[in-house]
Amino acid sequence: TPLPAVPGQATKLRHVVANLVGNAIRFVPPGTGKIGVSATREGASVVLSVRDNGVGIPAEYHDAIFEMFRRVPDGDGGGAGSGMGLAIVKRIVETHGGQVWVDSTPGAGSVFRVRLPAGSGERFGDSAPHRRDTACRKGPRRDAW
């Protein structure tokens, strides 16, 4: 079944995807990192998932990481971020009527999920779930994902 289009500001929704994938790239192990991106329909919503085999996030930070300037201490992410990215992601997603959350275990990676209301008209793609899994390596090359 094709996925419905998600109504909204395309530039902002692209920012959400770019931030989640960019974070996954930063936190996967060099040479053996894996990132998966998938989208599925769940009722009247489309759910985007970004999965990685990175360092993971302790449960006590699962909500806090979506607050402005909050970061997980002692993360091994190849340089600290600003602590703004996931807060901006949350703001964009909520502005579009959606939700964002993370399921994660330290040492086992993370799955960030974004649920957005599905549109009622235009559709894209020809099968669900849509998925792209790829090996990822750290470094200046960004076309690996």
Description:
The chain has helices spanning 10-27, 85-95; strands at residues 3-4, 33-42, 45-52, 99-105, 109-117, 123-124, 130-136. It has 145 residues and is of the alpha+beta class. The protein has a single domain, classed as 2-Layer Sandwich (Heat Shock Protein 90). The strands form 2 sheets. Strands 4-5-3-2-7 form a 5-stranded antiparallel β-sheet. A two-stranded antiparallel ribbon has the order 1-6. Helix 1 runs antiparallel to helix 2 (85-95). It starts with a strand and ends in a 9-residue tail after the last strand. Mean pLDDT is 82; it is low at 123-145.
Can you describe this structure in just a few lines?
The protein has 145 residues and is α+β, with helices and mostly antiparallel strands. It contains two helices and seven strands; from the N terminus they run βαββαββββ.
| Strand adjacency order, main sheet | 4-5-3-2-7
Strand content: 25-35%
User: What kind of sheet is the major sheet?
Assistant: 5 strands, antiparallel
Quickly name the level 1 CATH class: Alpha Beta
* Order of SSEs: EHEEHEEEE
Instruction: Quote the average pLDDT.
Output: 82
Radius of gyration: 15 Å
Q: How many strands in all? A: 7
